[in-house]
Amino acid sequence: MTAVLAPVIASERPSAVWLPGATVGKRLDATYYAVDFLRLDDVVNRHPRDSVRALGSLLSDPRRVLYMNTDTYSKEELSDGVPFISGVDIDPDTMSVRWDSVRRVEKTMCQRYPRGLLFDGALLIKVKGPNQLAAYIERSPKPTLVSGTFSMAAVKEVDPWYLVAYLVHDYAQSWRTRLRQNITVEFTPYDELAEIPVIVPNDGVQKAIGNKLRKAERLRQRSLLSQSEARREIDCLFTVKAATDDVPYGWMQARELEEDRLDSWFYQPSYRNMRDGVAARSDLIPVSERAALVTQAVDFSNWPTADFEYFEISDVDLQVGTISSKRLSVSDAPSRAKYAVKTGDVLVSTVRPNRKGVAIVGSRDLTAVCSSGFAVLRANDVRTAYYLRACLVHDLSTHQLMRWNTGATYPAIDRTVPLTVKIPWPADDVVNRIGEALKRAGDELDEATSLLSAAQHYVDALISGRLDEGQVIAEDRDIEEWLRSNPVCG
After folding, report:
1. CA–CA distance, 31 with 5 (Å, rounded to integer)
2. Whether residues 33 and 108 fall in one domain
3. How far apart are CA 248 and CA 267, in angstroms?
């Protein structure tokens, strides 16, 4: 009898298994039949055959377009260019496009590659490179092109948002890893992708799970719009622009020198011009007048629980100003776990301030610990905190922070520097209005995160056969009503 020797991955025993020849399909590589991947078959076989569909049967008009000589530009470099979605533009946490960071290509690319144009209701599945991502585009800016990093298709006979939730689950991602043909470039061709088995529940469950993603995406878009409006208002309040380096270097008076800074970086013309412009403004105040620096180090010997939520600089979402945490045991606390933080604290990254790594500790993390790489600012009012955060990511504030950089390879600032940044402070009612709008935007992002988590939990329960369908559908009634009252923006 013909048999195949398949390796076992992830330290399983025995180290290899014999497979009857009858179980071997068109794939003859041993990795495909690794024990961990054979378990994927076991999961599918536990579900009724009529509830499992091949992914390809749920898609129509699939396409993947390869581009030649593709030069991309930032929005500032090519303001009238066409957005060009690449693999780095999909947020793995929200399964959505980070539109603000999408680069541009020349308009002529639309005529050269019409099949690459994004359409409303498109499903994007990343098929090249690491990080197996998927996103559903309910409505898109026109025109937009999609890179060859993705397979793009319309969705049929299944709720598209449910399908996204399923495709980003660990189970579906393991299938994509199993079907991958080229280990070097991590590429999954469409023919293989189309074979991924999709567990398809009844319409009510599909819709209930999909609606969680629908609401999350609309909350996220609404939040981003509110933040954009607040940024425009704060920009008007600043009015002074960060100066450029178009002034030639020259002699300085000795009295202009700071006692502790004698380096040329600190005295670049742009920084000196900015300093003079800020000093001339009587309506700008230092952050220290509205927030205090948290300096007390955490004492883990008196920590009330066995674990804690931990914030690192890499956890900051630079686009929306939120920060995610990871749960660690107290015994595994890293040496950089330094300061206890609370809801409403403003965390300012002291490393590479040009990246604008400033975030608010959200309501989901009542008490946590952050890395020593942050300066922790605590305001008296949460609305003030949100206003401060919005001011600290303004270009002029970033320029003020960057002036105090030390170190060329690993630029950083002292933790006290954010307190010295001068920001506009209009009437209190204006600050409170802007801060309240930003807090509401933050709460919407928190709710969106919770909805995405719940959707993943239900997909997990579905795959493992533990789903309470009645509970899922009952929970959907309020979401369905909210979606009717809050239609997708045009």
Report:
1. 10
2. no
3. 12
Residue whose structure tokens are 């949100």: 386
* Strands 367-371 vs 307-311: parallel, antiparallel or unpaired: parallel
Cα-based angle 462, 464, 470 (whole degrees, multiple of 5): 35
Q: What confidence tens digit (pLDDT) does each residue in 114-159 have?
A: 999 999 999 999 998 777 899 999 988 889 999 999 999 999 999 9
Residue type (1 letter), 188 = T
Residue the block writes with tokens 């579906």: 172
In a domain, 227, yes or no: yes
Judge whether 122 lies within some domain.
Answer: yes
Q: Same domain, yes or no, for 161 and 116? A: yes
Which single residue is written with the structure tokens 């790489």?
Answer: 373
Which domain range does residue 130 map to?
56-200
Place of tokens 């579905």: 462
Residue 89 lies in a domain: yes
User: DSSP letters of 450-467?
Assistant: HHHHHHHHHHHHHHHT--
Specify the CATH number for the domain of residue 106. Answer: 3.90.220.20
Condensed to tens digits (0 to 9), the pLDDT of residues 42-53 reads 899 999 999 999
Residues 6+ apart with CB under 8 A from 37: 9, 31, 174, 178
DSSP symbol at 243: P
- Dihedral over alpha carbons 268, 269, 273, 276 (to 10 degrees): 60
Q: How far is C-alpha 157 from the chain's CA centre?
A: 29
Domain membership of residue 301 (yes or no) is no
Domain count, the chain: 3
Domain match, 121 and 36 both: no
How much is the CA Rg of the chain, to the nearest whole Å? 26
Sign of the four-CA dihedral 420, 423, 429, 433 = negative
Its pTM stands at 0.83
